Records
---
Amino acid sequence: VNSDGVEPKADQQVPIHAKTPKYKVDIGGPGLKTGRVGTPASVFLKVKDISTSEPVSVPVSDIGLSVTGPSTVTPSKPIMSKKTPGVYVIRYTAPTPGEYTVSPTVAGDVVKTKKVKWRPDTPHQADPSLTEPEGFVPVLAVNQPVDLMVAARNPDRSPKLNGGDEIDVTVASPDGTEVPVTVKDLGTGDYLVNFTPTVEGPLYLDAAVGGVPLTEVATPIDVTPDGVEQPLTIVYDNEIETPHYKLKVGGRGLKAGRLGHPGNVYLKVVDRKTSDPVAIPVDKIGLHVNGPSHVDPPKVLASAKLPGSYVLRYLPHTPGKYDVSIVVGDDTTAPTQVPWRPHPLPGSLDPSLSEVSGLEPVVAVEKPSTFTVIPKTPHGKVKGTGDDPLDIKVTNYDGTDIPVKVEDDGTGEYVATFLPNKEGPLEVDVALAGVPIAGSPFPISATPDGVDREAEFDTPIETSNYKLKVGGRGLKTGQLGKPGKIYLKVFDKTTDLPVVVSTQQIGIEAVGPSAVPPAKVIALPSAIGTYNLRYAPTEEGTYDVSVVVVNDRTRPRTVRWASGQSTGSADKYEMQDLLERYKSGIPSVFKIVTTDPSVTFGGEQFTVAVTTSGQESPVRIDDHNNGQYVVEFTPADVGDISIEVKLGDSHVIGSPFTAFVVPGPSLRCIVTGDGIFGGPVRVPLKFTVHAHVENSKKARNSVPEDAVSVTITPKSASSAITAHGVPSTPRRKITRQIPSTVPLSLEPVIPSVSNRRPGVFDVTYTLSQPGEYNIEVSVFGDSLSAEPFTAVGVEALANPQHSTVELPKTIKPNQPLKVKIHAKTDGGLPAQVGEEPFLVVVTPSSGVEESPMVVELDNGEYEFDYTPKTAGPLLIDVSLDKTPLSGTPVVVHVLPHASIEGNDLQGGNLHGRPAEFVLKFTDDNKKPFDVPLSVFTVPVIGPDSFDVPVTVTPTKPGEYQIKFKPEKRGDFVIDVKLDGQPLLDHPRKVTFANVPVLLPIKHLKEPKAEVATPCVITVPLIDTNGVPLDPSSVTINVDGPEPLKGTIVLNPSDTRPVHVLTFNPILPGTYNVGVNFDGQPLINPISCTVLPAIEPLKCEVTNIPDKVKGLDKPVSFQIVAKDKDGHPLPAGGLGHDNDFHVSVENDTLETPVAAKIKDNDDGTFTVSFDPEKPGDYTVKVDYKGTPIKLSPFHTAVYDVTAAKYSLMAVTVVTVTRVSVLVKAYNTRKDPKTVGGDDVSVCVMGPEGKVDHKVSDNHNGTYTVTYYADTKGNYEVFGTINGEPVIGSPKTYTL
C-alpha cells in the first residue's frame, strides 16, 4: 500500500526503448511478458521528451492499452506515479489462456506491439519465487550458443522431481527484438534453455512459471565479442605480488556468492618491473577452490581487448565457506575465504534495498571502527528479526582481509566492528545471501588519525540551483590504478543550509583520452549534504572533470592522470630548504620543487634515500599535487648525513646533498602523581620524577641519585588563604586558583626525595597549613619547567570510606528516627571543613524515594530526621559527593505490633475444615496500621517440622484473615514475620486433630480377590459437606492373614465421585480394610475375602452321567475348584467361569458342542451342553489351558423314540399284498437313523385279524406286510414301545 498505487520499482522495469512521433517511451512489466489467468498483470510506461530525454508528465487520458486475443479484455484505468515523473502503470487480466496481442499507446500512438502468452491457473505448478535459472552468466559471447538450466522448486523449497511446468523464457534487446529461445522439459523438474545471441550489446532475460515471472526486474545480459565484461565494468580491488608477476584482482567471486550464479574473478597480469601487461595461456590460469564440496575447474576467458586480462568463473553447488586461490603459471596466491549462500526465502530479503549506516569514509589505524547493516524486505521494511545470511568482508588494498566481528541482536540490524591495521584504501563488501547490497563494495580509507588530508573543500561554486563546495585530489591529479577522490558539499542557494541530494543524481563528467566509468558516490552519514565521489580512468592523459549535481554542472577542471612509471625529467626538479646541521632524533623536512612553471600537477615517483653513518632513515613523501613535494625524515644518529633524490635513474638538481648530524636533546623527564598539585594538610603527599639521559642510539641511561632536587616554598603574600585555610575555590576541588584573602604565615616545606629504582625518584612532603606553594623540580640544577608547579594545601575533607552513620536495625512505624552522620578524614579524624555535601536517600517498601534534610552539628557531626509511614524494609543510602559511605546502603526494618485472634487458636478437632484466625497490625498508639501483603509472611510449622500452606486475605486496613488446613494431628506453631523479623512476642502453638466425618456407606458388596492379584474396593468416601475425601490425607491399613498397606485414589465423576482402594494380598483368607485419618478410623472395616489360587490338577468333576437317554434334555455336571492342597474354594465370583474351558466332542460331529459354565459362587461351577446326536461324547475340562484332574471324561447319549411323533402310512397296495411303513422320530422330533424299537402292529380285516410281518430296516423305519384277499375295510393299528403312532389306526378299502 503506497500513496499512488504504483509499484515501487516501476521505473526500473522498462527495458524496452521505443519512440512515437511525439515522445520517447520506455515500456516493460509483467503484462508485456506473460501472465496467469485470474491474476492482473501490470504494464509500465516511462514517457520522456523526444529531444531532451527528460521525463515528461502527460494526461492520464493519453495513456492507453490495446489487448486482443482469445477473449475480450478491458484494461484498467491508467495510474500516474506521484513519486517518479513520467511513470505510469496500466493493468489488465486475460479471462482465458492463450496468446494475446498487447499494444501500449501514448497520445493515440502505438508504442510497441508484443505477443504475450497467458497461462491457466494450473495446480501443482512450481513456485516462481523459489525457481531460478542456474549457471546464468551475465556476459555472453556473440554467436556462441548458450545453455542454462531452470531448476523448478516446490513451495516447500524442495526440488521438483517431475516436469510438466509451463516455463516461458524471453530474451530481447532494448528495442524489443526477441532472440529465439527453446525450452526443453527434461522430466526431472529441470528445464534446459537454449538461445544464441547474434548481435553485440545489451539483452534482457525474463523467465516465468505458469505465467508468473521469476523476478520483478528483467535480468540484464551484455553480449561481447569474447564473452568478457566490458573494460569499463571491470574493477580491480586489490593488487597482489607473486614471485613472477604483479596481479590485479577483483570480482564478486572473491567476496561472496549465491548458489546457482557463477562467481566472477577478474584478473590482470602485469610484469613486476615494467608493469606492462603479460599474456598467459588460459590453460596456465586457474583457481584452487577448497570447501564443503568439490568444485569443477573454472571457465577461463581471455579478453580480446585488454591483453593480460582474464575472467575466471566458478560455481560451487553446496553452501559454505570456500578458500579461493588464483593460479598463474607456477604462482599461487594466498587463499581468500569466500562464503557461498543458498537462495533466501522468497520475500525475506532484498539486497538492493538494504542499507549500511555509520560507515565513515575515513577511519583511524589500530582503532576499532563500527557500522550498522540494516537488511530490508522487498517492501523496504526492516525485517525485525535476525539470523540473516549476512557476509561482511573488509579488505586492504594488498588483498589481505581484516577480521570483522558481527553482532546480531535479533532486531533485524547488525553491528559490524573491524580494526584497520595499515594505512591506505580499504574496501568494505556487504552481501546478503551472496548478493551485494546497494552501493557495495564501499571504498574507504585508513589514516593514522582517521582524518583524510585530502578532504578539503577548497573551491566554492554557485550553480543555477545550489551552492557547492568541492575539493580533493581527484580535481588536481591522479595515478592510474588508484581512485581519484572528489569531496562535495551541497548547500541551499537561499538558506545556505546543507541539502540532501540522492546519490543517483550526483556524478562526474570526465572528458579525456578514454571513457571513464561512472563515479562511485557515497553520502557521508556523519555530515548532511556531504558526499565522497571516486572515479578511476583507465588510460593515461589529461581529463576535463566536472561535478554534476542533479542538472547542474561545475566548470571543467583539467586533471592529469599518470601511470605508476615516471614520465617527467629529473632536471626539472630541485631540492630546497636543506640544512647544514641536523639534530639526531628530531624530525626534519625539505622540499622537492619543480623548476618548470608549466608543471602544475603531481604524481611523480621520486626515490629518496637518507643515510646517516651508514644507517638509512625512513622517509615520507607528501605530494602536494602542484609540482611540489615535501620529504620528512628523522636522522637516526650523530655523524655525516647523505640525502639523495632521484626521478627514475637520474638525480634531481642538488642531489646528492651532504651535511652533519649533531646530538639532539638528551634529557627526558616526566613528573607524575597528584601530589604535584598539593592536597590535604597534615597528610603525606607524593609525586614521582622520571629522569633519563638518551644517547644517540636511543638507549636510555638513568641520572645519578643526587641529580634530582625539589624545593617547596610558600607563595608571596599576594597568594593569600583564608583564616581557616579553605581556598575560595569550588568545594571539594584542588585547583591552582589563587585564594582571595590574606594568608597566615606559611613555613617552608622540606620534601623527601628517594630513589625507588634507577631513573625513578619518589618525592614525599607534608603541608602543615592551608595555602598555595611553589614546587620546583630540578635535574642537574636545571628546572624542568619555566614556571614552578603550584600546589594548594587545603584542610582535609571528609572521606566517604572513613565516614560513618548510626542506624538501628529495627524501628516502629510512625516513630520519629534521628540518625547521626560522622564525617571523618582519611586519617579517621573528624572533618572540620563543614558543609560537607551529604546526601540521604530513603527508599521504603513502596519504592518511592525520599530525601530528608541533613543538618550540620559540631565537630564533623551531621544529623537527619525521618518518620517511617509504611512497614517493611527501609533502604537508607548515605553518600558524600555521590560516593556511598562505608557500609551503606543499610536496610532498617520498620516493624509494627502484631496480634492474632480467633476461636480456632484454642485447638481441637476441625472435622476437615480449615483453621481460621485474624491477624491485626497496630502502631505504638494501638491504631490499626496497614501493612502491604508483599512485606510480611505468616509461617505455620506443622508436625514433623513441615511448612503448612497459608492463605492471607485482607479484610480491612491493618486486618487480615488467615487460613490453613491441618492435614495431620499434632502441634502447629504460628508466627508472623516482616522481612524476616518476628512480630509476635512468642510464636503461638496450637494442637489440632482435624478428623473429617464421612457420610454412611450403603449397599457395599463384599469384595473378593485371588492371591497375588490386587484386591480393588470401590467406595464413595464423602464428608458431611459433600466434599470427596482427599486421598493424600488418609492411609489404608489392611488386617488379615498378613498385615498390609493399601492405596487410595479418587475417581472423579460428574454424578458420583468414588474412591478406589487397592491392596495386594499374598495369602488367602479374610482381610479387614480400614481407612484412617491421622491414625483415626473413618469407617468400619470393609471385609474382603481373598481366595487361594486354583490348582487344575486338584480340581474335580462330579455328577457327570455315564449314560444319558434322549436328546431332549441338556447334559450337566459340576466342577469343584480346589487349591494346591486339594481344599475346595470356599467361594467364587472372581470370574473363573471364564478361566475354565470345556470342550465336548463327538466323532460324528464336525465341530465340538458348545458348553455353558456357570459360577455357583460357592467354589463350584455347573457345566451343561445339549447333545446334537446320540453316541459317545468326550468332555475335556481345562483351567487356563491346563487339564484338570482325570480330564477327559466320557458319557454316552442314547436316542429315545417318541411314538407320539412317529408316523405310519400305507406305501404299497397290490391285489393281494399290502405294505405299511412305520417311521420313528425321537423326542426332539428328529427322524431316527437307527432301528431297534419295539414295534407292534395289529391288522383287522372284514373277517377278523389278518396275519402280518414286521421288518426292522435299521434306519429308523419299519415295514409291515400282509396279504388281503377279501373285499371290504381293513384297519391297521401300530405302536412303538407300547404307544400308538401318528396315523394309527390306518383304514383303507379293498
Note: The first strand starts at residue 16 and ends at 19.
---
Amino acid sequence: MSQRKLVTGHPAQLSATRGRYKVWFNRHIIHGADRSWVRNITSAYTVGELSDISRRHAVTHVILEGELPPNLNTLFPQLTHLRLKSLCRNANFNSISSLRKLVVLNISGNRVFTHLFSNMFTSLLSLRELHMEGCELTTLPNSVTLLKNLQVLNVSENNLSKGLPDYMFTSLQSLRELTMRDCNLTTLPNSIFHLKNIEFLNVTGNNLSEGLRDDALAPLVSLRELHLRNCSLATLPNSIQSLQKLRNLDLSENNFTSLPSCVFTLKSLQKLDISRNNYLTSLDSGIIHMTELLTLNVQENKNLNSPPQEVCRRGINAVRQYYQDMAKGSGKNLPFVTIAVLGNTMAGKTSLIKTLQNPDRKRILTNRSPEAAKNEITKVFNIEEVEVDGIALRLIDMGGQEVYHITYQLTLRQNCIPVIVVNMQQYEQTSAESTRDEAVRKLAFDYMSHLYLANPVLGAPKLIFTHKDKFENVRFQKLKKCFLEVSNKLCKKIVEEEKALEGDFAQIQHFSKSPEGVFPRVNIYEVGIDDEYDIFDLIKKSLLESSHHFIKPLPLVWEEVNQRVMSMQSAYSTIDETLDALQAELGQIEQNQLKTILTYMHDCGKVLWYENIGSLEQYIFHKIKEVTKLLCVFYHHEQDIWQKRIEKFQPYYSEDEICIEKQDFEEFVNYFCETGLMVQSLLLYLIKTETSFSSPTDMRIAVCLLKTFRLLYGPLYEEFKEPCFIIPPFANKYFNSFDSSQKNMYLKVETHFNGLALPQYVYHQMTVGLLELFPDDFAVLHVKRNGANVYQDGIYTQLMHDYKHRKILLYVSSDAANISKMWEKIIATANNILKNVLETWPASRPVTTSFCAHCLLLGHTCPKKVLRPQWCLRSLKHQPKNVQLCSGFSTTLCNDEEIPSALIYPCGPLSRDEAHSIKEHVNQLKQNSFNDNGKPQQVVKTQMEDDNMSECSDVEEEGYADFTKDDLEPFISMVDGMKLRPTNNERVRQLFDDHRQVYAMSDPVRGRVMIINIERFFRDDGSELTKATRDGSYIDYVNIKTLLKDMGFVVANEDDPLFDLSKQEILSEVRKETTHRDHKDLGMFILVIMSHGTSGNIFYDKYCKPVNLSEVKDLLSASKFPAMRGKPKLIIFHACSGSRADFGNAVQSQSPDTVSPPTPTPLPSSSATAGSESSAGQHVSPNIHFDRFTHLDADDFYIVKPSTETYKAGRNENYGTWFIRILVATFYRHSCHRDVSELFRIIQDRVRRVSIAYCKKTGDEAAGGNVPNCQECTFTHLRKLFFFPKFHGRQLPQ
C-alpha cells in the first residue's frame, strides 16, 4: 500500500511538553520564509504516536521547539523542511546532520549556536536553503563549503567581526541569494565576488568605509538586486558598470556627496534608493539617460540642492524635467521656503513681521484698540514678504485665535521654517491660572503640533519671547529659564512615549535628535525694548541662514511660468486654461512640465494646487488672499459678526430675482447659530457678497474647496425646502454620552491620540469624515459640536470626540443578530477615520482599545478591553491584514464566565443558527440586567471592576470576620513584597495633565516626605519610661518609608532618621525642611508624625511634653512655606485621640500593655494658633494671610488621623499599627487609580473591619477597635489629589 502524505506543503510543529509533542499544521504556504509556518494548534502526541503517524504518512514539514528528539532522522525520514525554534542550550544536534533529504533548514533566532560543530552540514548535501539569522555566530562552520546545491543563504545579525575566510563561498556556485545583513563585517570575503550565478546580494549594515575593490563587482554579471544600505560608503567601484542586469540598487544611509557617475551606466536599473545620505548635495543630469528607471527615492537628504527636494518628491519624471529645463537656461537663486509665524493671539506676531519689514529699524506695534480707525488683528492668515540681503523671504502670519486654526492646513508646507512667538505676560498669567506645563503646551506646543505632526522632518523652530519691557530683567530671565526647562521636559516625554509605542510611526526627527532640546540656544530671541533694534537684524539674519538650504537655482522657464501665473487676475484657473495662456506667451510647454513647476510653486507657498485631491486637482488658486477671504466668511474671531451681517444685509439678484430675502436671511442665520446647519442660499449669499467667488461656477468651486478640507459637509435636507450644509464647530449642543439604556447591544471602540496633541479642528474633521461614509439619502444624521450619529439599515453609529482628553469614542448598535455587520461597520469606520488622520498627520500616535460587548450590556464600569486589537490601523505602513474572524459558536472567557467570542472579537458572516445562538445569549443578559423601564439595573461589581483596573488583588477584602491571628500574619507580612504599577486606566491616565481637575504632580520626583517617629519616652531627669515605648513603630517607619520612596518621594533625613525628638527639635526640623530649595520644583509635601497622643490633636515629644498639631501645621502654611503655595500638603498624624478602646458592646476595657503618658497640662489659650479652637472652646480671631488674593494659609491641606476623638489607636508590637499597615497595603494596591479621598475611605473601612475581627478572634485588646478619619481637607478649585505612582506621562504599557 503506497504512503500518502500527511502534510504535503503543510508543516507540523512539535513542542516537548512532559513527554508529549504538540503538532501544528499550516494552511497558507509562502516558500522559504519563516512566516510560512503559521501555527494552528491541533493536538499533542507522544514520540510513539508520532512514530506511528510517520509510518502511515510521509511527514515533510516540521517545526521543533525546545528539546530535540535524539532519533529525528528515524522519526521523520521523509523530512524536507525543518524549522528549529527556542531550542534549549543542551539540545542534541546530532540527529540533524543525518537528515539527508532535507531541502530547507531554518535555525534563525536560536542563540545557542554560538559555535556550530564544523561537520554539522557534511551530510546535508540536498540542502538548498539555509537560514541562520540572529544565532550569535562568530564564524561559519567549514562544512558550509560542501553545500554545492545551496541556493539561498542567510547569516544576518551574527557577530562576524573577525571576518570570514576568503575561500568560504568559492564552492557555492549554485548560490542565488546571499544575505549578510548587520554582521559587523569590515571587509567582504573575496570569494563572494566570484559567484557568477548570484542574483541577490544584501550586505546592509556592515561598516565598509574602506570601500570595495575597484574590480570587485565585475564578475557578478547575473546580479539583479544589490543592497548596500548603511555601509559607510562614499564611492562605488567602476566595476559596477558590469552589472547590466541590475534592477534594484539600494545606496541609502551612506556618505555620498554626489551620485557616482558609474550608476548612470546601469541601463536596466528600475529602482534606485539614495535616501538619507546627509552629505548628498546634488544628483547629476546623467540621470536623464537612465530610461528604464521607474522609482527614485531621495527622501531625507537634508543638504540636497539640485534638484530641489520639492521636485524630487514628484519622482523620476519630475527630476528628468528639471534637468531638461535647466539645460535650456538657468535663472537666479530663489527661496523655496515658507516661514510660518505662529503663536497665541496678542503674542506679537504681526508686530514682529511689521518691524522686520520696516527699513527704519524701528519697532512697530499693531493697533488693536476698539477705538482705532483700523483694527490690525490678523484674520485667518496674512502672507507678507521681508527682504534680507536682496532675497525676499515669504512669511505667513497665522491668526492666533482658536477659530482660525482650522485654516492652517491650507498653507503649511514641508519646506517650512517654524517661528513660535510667546508673550511672556501670557505665560506668567497662564502659569498662575493652571500650571507651567499647561502654559507651555498652550502657548507653544499646541502651535507646533500644526507643523510637526504634519511634517515630522521639519528642523528646529525659532523661539521669540515678546513683551520683555513689561518685566524687570531678573524676572524675565527666570520666566524664560522656566519655560525652556518645561519645554525640554515635555519633549523628553513625547520621545519616551514614541519609544514605548509599537508600530512604524513617523517620528518627529527634531525632537528625537536635538541634543539642545526643543529650542536650540542660537534660535532664541527676546524682543520688547524699543532701543534694542539690533535684535531684529539678528532675527532676519537667522531666518536667512535657515533659508539658505532652500535657496536654489531654477530653470529660466520656471521663473517665467511663475511670473505669468502670479500675474493672472482671477482667483483661480484650471490646468488647461493656465496651459493655454502660458503656451500663448512662452511657446511650447507640456502639461507634465507645468505640473512639476506648479509643485514647486505650491511648496513655496506661492499658489495653492492640490494635485492629490481629485475634486481640486484641475484648479490652481493663484490668489491666496482670496482663499483667505473665503475662509474668513465662516471662521471669524468677532463675537457679533452675525448680528452685523443681519444689520448690513443687502439682497443680491440673480436673473432679476432676489435670491434671499432679509427675513429668510435672519431666520437662516439664527438657525445656523443654533444648530451649525447652514442653508444653501445663505452659504451662497455669503460667498457671493464677501468673496471674489461670485459666479455660479466660482461658488461651486468655493464649496468644493471647503468640502475637500472637511470644513463643511453636505448637502442634506432638513426642515427647509432647500439643502443645508453642516459646519460642526458651530453647533451649540453636545452629546453627553452614548445612550446605553437602549435594549440593543452595542460595540464600543476608543482611540486615544498620544504625543503632540492633535489640533482641535481635526476632531471636527473626524465628524465630517464619519458623515462621508454614509452618502445614502436614507441615512438619518444628527450632528453636534462633539460628534455625530447616523442611523442606516438598522444600525446606529455614533462618534463622540473629546479634545480635552485627546480621544474619540465610536459606538455601533443594533440587534444582536446583526453582530457580524456591526463588527464590519465599526472596523471600517474606525480604520477610515484613522487613515484620514494619519495621512494628514503622520506623526500622530493613535492607540485604539475595543471593549467587551458582554460587559457593556451588563453595565460594568470596567469592561474587559483589548488594547490595540489586531484589526485596527496602527500606521499607514502597517495595514491590518488577514484578520482572524471567530465563528458564531466559538466561546471565550470574560470574568470567568463563558460568552460568545463574537462579543469581544470580530466575527464573519453568521449562519441562521449562529445568529440565533448569539441573540439568545444577549436576550438572556437583557432579562437579567434590565428592569421593566428598560434601564440597566445596578450590577453587583467585583472588587476589580470597582477599582477601575486595579493591578493587584485584595486578599483581605472578604472574610474579615473569619480571620485568626495565624490567618492574619500572611496578610501583614505581604506588605514587604508588594510592588507599585502604573495605572492602565485610561480615565486616570488622562487626568495626569488635566490640572483643572487634579493637582499637578512633578516628575520623576513627586515631592519630599518628612517622617517623625517618637518611639521612646523619657522623664525630665533623662530616665526612660520603658512601659511607654511604642514597640512596633519602627516597622511602621520602614513600611511607610518604603512605600513613599516607591511612589517617587524623597525621604528627608533618611540617613539620620527623625526619631525621639523634643518639641523644640520637632518644630525646628519642620521649619528647616520648609526652606529646602527642591520644594519649588516639586509637586507636593508629606509629613508623617507618629507618637502617643490625646484629644485635641495633641501628641507628645520624647519628654512627654504636649505638641499641638496646629503648631506644626502653621509652619506649613502658604505664607511660611511659599515653595508649596498652591500645592497639596498631606499630613498623616498617627497618635491616639484619647484612651478609650472602642469594641462596641462586646468589649469595654483598657489594654494592660498600654501605658498612657502623663496627662498633659492644658494648653493656654495664647498658644492656640490663629483660627483654631482654644482648649476652653473659645474661638480665637483668625489671622488670615493672603498671597495676591489667591491663596489662604489653610489652603491645600489633607490631614488624616487613625481614630476618632477621645479614642485610642491600635498598635501591635510585632506588626506595627493597624492604620499604617493598612494604609501602606491600600496605597500599594489602589493609589495607581484612586485619589487620596477614596484611598482613605477604603482605609477607614478596612481598619475598622480588620481590627474588630482581629480583636474578637485573638482577644488582643491592645490593637483597639478604631475608625480612622479625615481631620481636615482644604483642597482648592474642586481638585483631587492623585499620586500617579510609576506613571511618567502618557506612556503605554509594554
Note: The two ends are 55 Å apart (CA to CA).
